[in-house]
Structure formats: structure tokens, C-alpha cells
Amino acid sequence: MRQLTPEALNPAILNVQYAVRGELAIRAEELRVQLKGENHGLPFDRIISSNIGNPQQKGLDQPPITFTRQVAALMEWPALADIAPDAFPKDVVARAKELHEAIGSIGAYSHSQGVPFIRENVAKFIEERDGFPSDPNHIFLTGGASAGVSLLISMLISVPHKSGVLIPIPQYPLYTATLARFNGVPLPFHLDEAADWAISIHDIEAAIEKAHREGITAKALVIINPGNPTGALLDEDTQIELVKLCEKHSLVLLADEVYQVNLHKPTTHPFTSFKKIVSQTQSPVLLVSLHSISKGVSGECGRRGGYFECTNFPADILDLIYKMVSVSLCPPLSGQIGVDTMIRPPNPGEESYDLWKKETDEIHATLAHRTKTMSGRLNALPGVSCVDSPGALYLYPQIRLPDQAIETAREAGKEPDAFYALQLLHETGICVVPGSGFGQKEGQWHYRLTCLCPGVEDYVRKLEEFHEKFLQRYSGAN
Amino acid sequence: MRQLTPEALNPAILNVQYAVRGELAIRAEELRVQLKGENHGLPFDRIISSNIGNPQQKGLDQPPITFTRQVAALMEWPALADIAPDAFPKDVVARAKELHEAIGSIGAYSHSQGVPFIRENVAKFIEERDGFPSDPNHIFLTGGASAGVSLLISMLISVPHKSGVLIPIPQYPLYTATLARFNGVPLPFHLDEAADWAISIHDIEAAIEKAHREGITAKALVIINPGNPTGALLDEDTQIELVKLCEKHSLVLLADEVYQVNLHKPTTHPFTSFKKIVSQTQSPVLLVSLHSISKGVSGECGRRGGYFECTNFPADILDLIYKMVSVSLCPPLSGQIGVDTMIRPPNPGEESYDLWKKETDEIHATLAHRTKTMSGRLNALPGVSCVDSPGALYLYPQIRLPDQAIETAREAGKEPDAFYALQLLHETGICVVPGSGFGQKEGQWHYRLTCLCPGVEDYVRKLEEFHEKFLQRYSGAN
């Protein structure tokens, strides 16, 4: 029989790129296997996966929130509440009982849009956060934010290679990967690194016009706030301008707000949801706001849970979204109950509250401390500049590389920042993602690293030592 | 701003149909809400969702396997093993410890292809089942079988509206829905109801030739074994012929084997995997075999877990599949550990074994009893014929409807079987799926119902009484 070749597959598949789990991450997995052997010959003992925001991974071990896991354990085996009545706080038992009555077995498919009771709770959470009404019927629980992004972009690409989506550069590569898969056109606009990664309305307008000249219709605008990989936070004036821009150009606003509680400087850099801005300004703009349990202080990536809320969507479009999610049956119940515990933490006075407060305070403080330490120390290195991110889980330092390094990289067929990151991996075990995976201006080089790490001092020292050695190696002086 | 209309969306989305959660299911949800009100005015007190194979749903309450849930509870909160040491059998504690060491926190992303340790266990399970080697690197854990089907079909459709996939009629509508979404062409071949839904190689050849004449290339053949909705099981001779057919026409064989342990007559109608047939015959055919934790005796639909194994796939194609799953990050860990407990049940002599045996024996016996009772009684009704399914979770009775019913249905703009099913729902609360959702020969009418129900006697009586009333209502005699 004829063998199957990549050329016989959907060509869109071949164009998909996803650097977060790309070449560097695959090489890191190989090294991880090599480390298990005796006499592995590597100059480090562990891989530190700073390529992905995965707080609970081995070696990082950000602890899960106890309340979340206690409720989940009782949902798995409800008889436990009777078998081991003293093992659980009373509010946990009550919460699990309430959820069990609403859901039944977590081994059953739920409503395709998500358990109605949990959607009602999400709507209340949004109302309390923003001060404006939210409708549970306009909320879709998902298997993480990525599933929602993929669904929505696949629906919006109406004409292959002619429908575009505006995306910030640098961006989270899920967006370009999803556009490639569904033959949509990425319409990039650059964030201003010198202004702490600010958005320029003018640059977005220019991207829309450029697309128009090329016969491409902009269908949606992606905004990631707090930013990934930049960690930047939008101010409300900019948000209002962005909403007006979407109105003017009939763009669906895709607001990726999964880092909304990862705020390291909440006084000077608070988070305001786009839902609140749209409600306040009574804008008719079509808004999708995405949230997730994978980030924040929850860090429950493995459960695959999240939601998106549609604002100002016509009923027939909501019906179509429902039809599409129904083909996938339902989001994982483990993720759905994870959403519920995230948006309904214990209240003051309840038995679990103190522990919950202590755990979440510690996670916030640790992240803020690490981010500040890492950005400060990286900034002090020769040829490195790093915006001190007020939010999210990442830093995106710019590295100015010696000409000789750039030439050597080019000769090896690598992007210079990928070349740098591969050497970093091989010499320290630290896996980061080259900026070429997120996008950057021509001739600039970056990498993204998470602010999740074991022992920040030791970790930063490794980054520093490597960087200095790298500069020496490729300086004109040798 | 311009309003978003369905016409401005990807036109493929509009063509997607998924009857299992379609009109009937949506109406059933509305009635379920109505039932909560006082004086609901409906002639029944509960909705029985026989439209979907969802064993643990409220009202059906097939119990989860205790072993599965105990392991899962300990994975959620590992400290429980110390806090309540007497609450769990020793083998459960040992199993959870082993999994925890291999995985770490279930709140972390795993390898995108699934936890390596669990894939190794799946490979051992397949080797023991079939007697042939299996490679963990060729196994992809998924969020249920549907996720795998959707991914694979989306990759195989290389030319929109010109790449086809052969699907049995009747089929599980996931296949047509996925083809519609990715602009693939369904190439139907009919199963022979008079021969207990047998497959005819000749009919598949005819479908390939017809496609060829229309400029459509058949890329893959879908086989559902045990069948859905038919419950039929293939014999090995037919399986060998199907493999040869795939070789001859260079078709990828997509073997949906999610009902492989739902066997009601295992002596006369055993299950043989396509992996075994391909291995035995040393066929070079590209095979994807799909399995799930949602069916079988596990019934863990809500966890979203499953796997597919690729046989004879070239390395570059496996790399592309890996790239695509990496964009979705990873399957839910709750589903992954569900796969592990399904394929590694307790062994004889271990503390959990007796209970596991009792629970699974009961589920098997109940399903076999219900299927036999339901098919026997349905067969005895005037105008109904129903193959006595040896496998899976469904029956697919054919109903011969009075001309007057057909005319009335047509006047109401309904398919006659949807018209029948809607009346069944409104009069009894039983929700089934009309045959038009699965496919049937012109002029024939069917419906699919699950063999999951509370109290089979009472349930079948409702079906009988409704059917006789329906015939009276539309017989020429009134």
C-alpha cells in the first residue's frame, strides 16, 4: 500500500507552530530521560521547565490549594464524608455535598455548556468582580482557556486565508497556532517594549488598514491582559479605546484574562476586566472574556478547567457555539469543579478560610518576590533589558547578542535566540522559550521564562553565569 | 457596529449536525426545567435520557467502580492516606502512591501525549489483550475518544470537499459532525439490518468507486466495533477482509473500539481488536484504534479519558500528531488516571479485588439482561423489529409508521422518526434519538435508545404503551 506522507495531510497542519512545547521542550524531555541513567555526563542534575506556566510540576511543586483538593477528593468518593468524618473541615463537607446534589456523579457527562449550577456561580463571581449583571446562559465552561480560543477562532475564520485576527506581538503562540490550523491570517501589531509593552491604538489601526489593502478582513482582536509573555497590565483608558476600536471595525474582542489574579503590584497596576469596561460604556461590542484555573494562585493546569463569557452575542450565534461544544460532549468535570472552588473560595469565618488565606497569600508573595528578583538581576546583566512585569507568570527579557553568536547561529540554521536558549538548556538544564516563538521586531532577540522556579537565588545565578560565559564565548576578543 | 450573523461565520460550522445532543435533547432539557415547577402539567415526573450513553447520570445512577474512585480521591489529596489510613484498602493506597510518584501532582500539565508511565501500562494492557507488542510512544492519551477522532479526521482531510472518509450507516454522528466541520466528505456504506447489521465489503468497494467517479479520494475507513448504534460485533474473517481492503485502497483504518468490553454474549460474539488482526496478518495497514473510559463497565464519561494507538504510522506523521496535541497542552489528568485504573484493575488476591469483581459482574449482567428484555419486548410490538444486540450499550429498533403519521410529520416539517420521538418524549419523558441522526435507508425509520434505564420493566412498558397509542392515533381507522 501507499505510505502516508505529511504531504497527504491537511496542509494547514504543517503550518502550525507551538514553541512552548517545541524544539526546546522536546530536547529538554530527551535530556530528562538521559539524566535518569548513571554517568549521564550532563553538567546539571535536573531539568527546570521554565518554558511553560505549570506551577505544580515536579521540581517546582507550587502546592495546590488544600480546599480545592479536599472538595475534589469528596466528589470522587462521596462515601468518604461518612467513612472518615474527621478528616475534612466542615465547610468542605458542606461544599462537596452541595456540589454533589447539583451535579450528581462526576463520572457522568454534564450539560455540554457546563453544569448549570456552576455557571450560575461563575455569573455571581463576575457580577461581584465587576458590579454588572452576568447571564449563566452566556457562560461556557471549557477544558482550559485554550479549548475556548480554538473553538472561537475556528468559528470566526469564515474565508480561508482571507479572514484575519489581530494579535499582539509578542503573543502567546496558541493564537498563531490556532490561526494556522484553521487557515486564518494573523494580523500582528507590535507592543511597545520601551513603554513597558504598551498597546498603541494607532498600530492596530495600521494593521487593519494593511490587511484591508491585502484583501483580508479583520474579524477579531486578541488582547491578553495581564499580558503573556509581557506581564503588562492595561489601564482603563486604553481599554475604553480598544473597545471603541472594536466597535468602529466590527471586531469581536477576544479578551484573554487568564492571569487576572496574578498581580504583583496591584496598587499601581490593578486589573480591570473588559466585561466591566463594556458594561460601563454600554458598548454593543461582541466580547468574549476567557478565564482559567491553570494560572492565578490555583495553578490547576492538569484538571483542564476554565470558562468564557460571551457579552452582546446574538442568540443564534450562542446556539451555534452550543452546538459545537455539544459535539465534544462536555468539559471535564474535574475542571468544572475546579472552576467552582476557584471562584467560590472559603469565606472568612469558615473553617477552611485561614488555611486558604495563608496558602494564597504565600503564592502571591512568592511570585511577586521572584518576579522582582529575576527582573532586577536580569536587567543588571550586560546586553540584557527586562521589563519588571506587574502581572502574569513570565518575564520576557531582551538579549543583545554578539555578532559572532548571530553568525554562528545562522550557520547552524538556528534563530539566534533559539541558539542561545539551546546552549542555556545544555549547560544549566533550564528550559526557556526563544522569543522567535512569541514574535519580536526584526533584529531583536528575547526569551520567555516563567517566574516559577525552585530557589530563586540559585536559579538566577545560573542564568547570570551562563549569560556571561555566552558573551565571552562569542565576543570578538577570542 | 455591524451585528455578527451566522453567515459571517465559518460556513462549515453551519453544516455540523449532532443529533445525540440535538433537538430532542434540547427539548428534554426544557422539560426537565419545567418539571421542577409546581403543577408542571406533564404526564410524567422525570426525564429519562436514553439519548446518550451516560451510565452514571442522575436517574440511571450506574455506580462508579469503587476502586477507581478511591484511587482518584487519594490522587486529589495524597495526605488523606496518612490522615485516614483505615479508610482505604491497602492496594488502593499502594496504587495511588505508585501513580503519585510517577505523575507528581495531578494539578500539573503532563506530557502532551499523556503520562509516560500510564502509556506504558496501556501498552502492556494491549499486549496482554492481543498477544502482540505495543509501543507506548505510539499511544496518545486523550480527553475521551471523541477528541482523538476529531484530531485524526481533521488531519486526514487534505483537500476540502475532495477528501472523503468511509463511514457505516447507521453511524455515530460524531463522524459526520467532524467531517462537516473540517470540510471532509462522508462516504456512506450501509450495514445490512436483515443480517444483524453485517458489513458488506462489496458495498464499501462500491462507495469507494462512487467517490472516485465524483473526484473524491477516500482517505480512511471508520469501523465501529462493537457497533454504535447497532451493537453488532465483527467476526475475524470480516475483519481480515476489511484490513485487506484498506491495504488495497491505502486507507487509514479508524477502529472505534470503545465498547470492547460491553459484550452481552461473549461466547458466541467475542471481541477481537483490529490491532490483533493487523499484527497477526503482518499487514502494513495504518491503523488507529480508539478506546475510552466512558463506556464499558467504567462509565466514567465525566472524567474525559481515553486513548488511541497508532500502528504502522511513519515517525514523521507521529511527530505531527504530537505537535497538534501539544497545542492543547495535555489531556485531563483525571481522565488519564481513569485510563490507568480501567486497564489495571485489582488483581485476584488483592484487597480490592472481590468488590471490583462483584461491581463489574453486576454491571455486565444488568446490561445483558436489559438488552435482552428490551429487544425481545420491542420485537413483539406491531410494526417494530429490533436486532438483539450482542454488544455496546444501544438498541436501534426499526419502526414501520402508519402513512397518516408520516404525512402528519411531513406537514409539521419533521422527519417521521423525529415526530415519533418527540411524541414519545412528551408523553413518557423518555428521550431517544431519531434514526435520521444516525442514517438509515430511504423510507425506513428507526430510533436509538440506550440499554441504560431505571427499572427495565416499567421502562419497557412505557415504550410499549406509547407505541400502541401512537399506532392507534395514526391508523386509518380513526
TrEMBL record, chains A, B:
Record domain Aminotransferase class I/classII large: where: 89-453
Subunit details: Homodimer.
Single annotated GO MF: transaminase activity
Cofactor(s), by name: pyridoxal 5'-phosphate
Coiled coil regions, renumbered to chain: none
Organism: Pleurotus eryngii
InterPro entries (UniProt xref): ALAT1/2-like, Aminotransferase_I/II_large, PyrdxlP-dep_Trfase, PyrdxlP-dep_Trfase_major, PyrdxlP-dep_Trfase_small
Family (UniProt): Belongs to the class-I pyridoxal-phosphate-dependent aminotransferase family. Alanine aminotransferase subfamily.
Keywords for this protein: Aminotransferase, Pyridoxal phosphate, Transferase
Domain of life: Eukaryota
Protein's name in the database: Alanine aminotransferase
The keyword Cell membrane is annotated on this UniProt entry: no
